[in-house]
Amino acid sequence: MLERAQDAPSGVDAVKASGTVSKDDYKAVIEPLIDDARREGRRIRLLWECGPEFRSFTPAAGWEDLKTGTGAMRLFEGCAVVTDMRWIRDSTRLASFLMPCPVRVFGGQDREEALRWLVSLPEGPGVSHELLTESKVLVVEVEQPLRTQDFDALAQTADSWLETHDALSGVVAHVRDFPGWENIGSLLRHVRFVRDHHRRIGRIALAADTKLAGLVPHFAHHFVQAEVRQFGYDELDDAVAWAASPPHPTVQTPVSKGRPATKPAQHSTVGEVMTRDVVTVRPDTPFKEITSVLATHGISAVPVADARGAPMGLVSETDLLRKQVDQPDKYGEQAAPPEWPHERAKARAENAAGLMTTPVVTAHADWPVAQAAREMDRHRVRRLLVVDDTDRIIGIVSRSDLLRVFLRPDDEVREEIRDDVLAGMLRLGGTEVQVQVHEGVVTLRGEVENRSTAEIAERLAKGVDGVVTVRPMIDYSVDDTAR
């Protein structure tokens, strides 16, 4: 069974499991807990205690746990699991990487310590950084597992500098033993930070004694443009001096007939097609007011934002209609309740916190339109909220916005392929490959020396905004792809 403990401090929800936990236990204890948090517009700090009297979960309880957790994952601010049972401790540590909030495991005798940790949330930074303005080097000190907030702070410092300077001379990461990432969200935020900044950083130095550090320079060149080099943990001054010095000049790689490529063609970004004037509501906005907002502005969904402007969820017409579906008909007949717990909660909800769909899927203004389209398809959503590096909402982009690229006139598409792709990137003249475009369908005709050049031309043409498909009709003299 599950029962809520009454001795938890304010702001902490404590649940104790004993005997065999069933699906009905989840419905009686966990679902009301989540409903309360949604209604009050607050985050959940959960203490989950499994003492020696706990036996197991029923299969139905496991399924209920998965459904409930999936629908409410973004509501959790932290979770402490108190138990001496090894299988629970091990499985919790494994699952914690997939959670969007910090998760810690405590021994059965450490309940008070677990409560103190929950009360202290959100945690302070495990990463500190300093921008050395004279040498133009950003020094990052890493002591705890990397969190999403750490990369937000790094991005804010780096972006503030880059607003008035062309580049950073270098970045130095100083870490004795790499602690990893707090969860998968922080790993993805790390990847995004690298993607957004590596072209404007000259050198990256890793001052660390961890065994993995020696591998970084060997594979980093596949992902970043900057030079990368390892130093020992005690060689911080040498690492900063190296990062501050100008990088070695890079050699351009010939693409076709010994001629170097120039910058790639520019593609439409999310920032160019998104709607910037975004209407939002707060978690405590009542049901009827949300309905009025949708009708007044002629929109089908509205983001829910916290006081800082960060997205918490999205309320769509579908979410609101669950209230109507749950109403009895004129004969008093009640429809069967929805199977999923979060759907039942929405049917009873009175404000945005209870109605909203979470987690919300976000994009960034500098994303190519194609990347946003892939993200929509992967998550099966109709729209993406666009956020800045501090996670504040700056726009919204819908499927119809992304489809605007196909409204480009055929002449514009043909000119971009001819001038930017063939002439600019591949250095092919108009006599070698001709371009025809009709209703977005591109035909490439001509003859080149190498098969690889013909294949590259086809792939690059497919990436041009407004292209529906490419029909390659390019002959070649040498099959340089054969082994």
UniProtKB/TrEMBL annotation:
The lineage of its organism: Bacteria, Bacillati, Actinomycetota, Actinomycetes, Kitasatosporales. Residues 274-330, 356-412 form the CBS domain. Keywords: CBS domain. It comes from the Bacteria. Residues 248-270 are annotated as: Disordered. Gene3D superfamilies: 3.30.1340.30, CBS-domain (3.10.580.10), SpoIIaa-like domains (3.40.50.10600). Signal peptide: none annotated. Residues 409-480 form the BON domain. This is STAS/SEC14 domain-containing protein.
